Here is the input.
Amino acid sequence: MNDSPEAPSAPAQPELPVVSEALHAELVAFRRDLHRHPELSRQEFRTTRKIKAHLERIGLAPTVLPHGTGLFCDIAAPGDDRPRLALRADIDALPVPDQKSVPYRSTAEGRAHACGHDAHTTIVLGTGLLLADLLRAGRLPRPVRLLFQPAEEVMPGGALDAIKAGVLENVDRILAVHCDPKVEVGRIGLRVGPITSAADKVSLTLEGPGGHSARPHLTTDLVMAVAKFATELPAALSRRVDPRSGLSLVWGRIEAGHAANVIPSHAELEGTLRCLELAAWHEAPDLVHEVVDHIAATYRAKCAIVYQRGVPPVVNEATSVELLREAMTARYGLHAIEDTEQSLGGEDFSWYLERVPGALARLGVRPVGDTAKRDLHQGDFDIDEGALTVGAELFTAAVLLS
Here is the structure.
């Protein structure tokens, strides 16, 4: 007879709800409606009304943010004041023409959901529908806050407005997903630590007396000066910071002059500075000002610089990443998870993680077997809508396992 004590059994896993065919169809219809009617940052009034109406229809009480766009909604039993797990979606679109030939093509000229925010919004809404059913059945293990945030696509991001409005009050963890056209639908990419880059905007305005192009020595050659800024400023910065910080300054707009034989009196240059490491990001403004002053003095140009802080890197917390890993594994298996690299893109989800732990996962939206190279912020961007189910089931599992 064996008298040794039995090893304790592992705790039983909760039953994980699945998205039914009917709910999937509802989510697809909702996402396509948003896709047809994209709204730019801080203009998301229709989108906010649509989300609010869906939540109220199932008996929830969403709160619209002070500026009238974006909202949050708690799913909790009456009197349950325990800390919330927050699930965040961004709701704004981009000033990018929709180039797809699909029935749900954008009806707004020059605007499109070219970054997948319509999918993020639909996923958090679908999660809310599943969690509300669990609450009614007495199976919701903890209170949850759904957050639909406006203005992610502008610097420094609508997350700061949402935080100011109190969306993180009584929140102890926050999760999000972002569409990734490089990852196949049914899979997610995870990474502990930095997963996005810091992103700032740099604007230079040059002034000089102008003059005839035959006598550049008698004036300030602003075209030459702005060309030097465009090439020498990025080059100098690359030699002033640790290369491992991944600091990169790339120009997007340059403007100077209107005639071939006239040296202009005004020139402009705009670009974005991105950085993988937080320490170098904090040093970047002083370095930019120092190098700009040196180049301006060399070419006798008056230069005004506007350095606009954007967002710090999204730094995923290890416990939150593990929660997403456990949730995806429980629902789809280990094969559904892959490592992901740090992106040079910016994401204002980083502002939440400055205050509470959390993590962002890359959600696969590439159709199975599709080998075409696709990217975000392009007019032909689209998703495999099976990702809506995957995202909603991932978040629901994360809530049940947290």
Remarks:
- The CA atoms of residues 77 and 138 lie 9 Å apart.
